[in-house]
Amino acid sequence: MAQHTAKANDHVRVEPQDLPITKGLQQGIHAFEAMDEDLGLVRILERRIPEPQFDLPYSDETEAFLPSLAGGLSVALARRSKSSIQK
Fold first, then answer.
1. What does the pLDDT read at residue 86?
2. Distance between CA atoms of 40 and 75, rounded to whole angstroms?
3. What angle do CA 28, 32, 35 make, to 5 degrees?
4. By three-state DSSP, how is residue 50 classified?
5. pLDDT tens for residues 33-78?
6. Distance CA 28, CA 63 (A)
7. Rounded distance, CA 72 to CA 6, Å?
8. How far is 40 from 43, CA to CA, in rounded Å?
9. What CA–CA distance (Å, rounded) separates 74 from 28?
10. Separation CA 3–CA 56 (nearest Å)
11. What is the pLDDT of residue 46?
12. Directed axis angle between helix 23-39 and helix 60-86, to 10°?
């Protein structure tokens, strides 16, 4: 989706504003970043996240944001799993 949005906006790179970030995902990102202050997981995720092959490269800002995005997805998934189990 980000690549399609970037192309529609005539960007030559995928910018952070091209990423489809929902309100729930944004909350997960904020929760991850708050936890990460104590844990330092971003450094680990920076080395572990493979870059998908797209037509457009990521901007430096987008590249720097990917570990927080991955962490936010993890938090959102964990919250979703927890609420499903409790039901």
1. 63
2. 15
3. 140
4. coil
5. 998 887 887 877 777 666 666 788 999 999 889 889 989 998 988 8
6. 18
7. 22
8. 6
9. 8
10. 7
11. 73
12. 100
Distance, CA of 81 to CA of 78 (rounded, Å): 5
Helices (H), the chain: 2-8, 23-39, 41-48, 60-86
Distance CA 61, CA 82 (A): 32
The residue type found at 82 is K
Count of residues in the chain = 87
Rounded to whole angstroms, how far apart are CA atoms 87 and 28?
Answer: 21
Cα 22 to Cα 25: distance, rounded to the nearest angstrom: 5
Write out the two tokens for 21: 């970030």
